[in-house]
Design goal:
This protein is mainly α. It contains 5 helices and no strands. The protein has one domain (2-128). It has helices at residues 2-26, 39-64, 70-94, 99-118, 121-128. The chain is elongated, with a radius of gyration of 17 Å.
């Protein structure tokens, strides 16, 4: 479980940094179906891309700690879940988005419970086996 937590945190961090930088560089072209959304959406998307890249860096920081801090994992998972809640509010207010956004919403609803479940795996491993290897 400890290794699964560390790997999932690392993969999440790398993915979020990559997605965030893709939005910073690509602007509207990074949003499916919105390449011509205009300057305001382009500016907003690039700004939020930078924020998302920073969020990914927080995941990478957590994955590198020994043990992986459960409290940080829970907070980062809660932020991800809040993003899913925002997408659900948009769905209720405006209808179905691009199908790719629906897939992202599903991921954002599925992963947080997994992170909440795994959050203290590394800390618990350290408690059970204080001399356990760092891998």
């Amino acid at each position: 479980m400890s290794r699964a937590l560390r790997m999932l945190a690392w993969v999440t961090g790398v993915a979020c940094v990559a997605i965030g930088l893709f939005h910073v560089i690509g602007g509207n072209a990074a949003i499916p179906g919105e390449a011509d959304a205009g300057a305001t959406i382009d500016s907003l998307g690039r700004f939020f891309g930078a924020i998302f890249a920073g969020y990914g860096l927080a995941w990478l920081w957590a994955a590198r700690q020994n043990p992986v801090p459960a409290g940080v994992v829970r907070w980062l998972a809660a932020v991800f879940l809040l993003g899913a809640a925002g997408r659900l509010l948009s769905l209720a207010a405006h209808g179905w988005p691009h199908p790719f956004q629906v897939v992202l919403t599903a991921i954002e609803l599925v992963l947080p419970p997994v992170w909440f479940w795994l959050a203290d795996a590394d800390e618990q491993r350290r408690i059970r086996s204080p001399l356990a290897s760092d891998s």
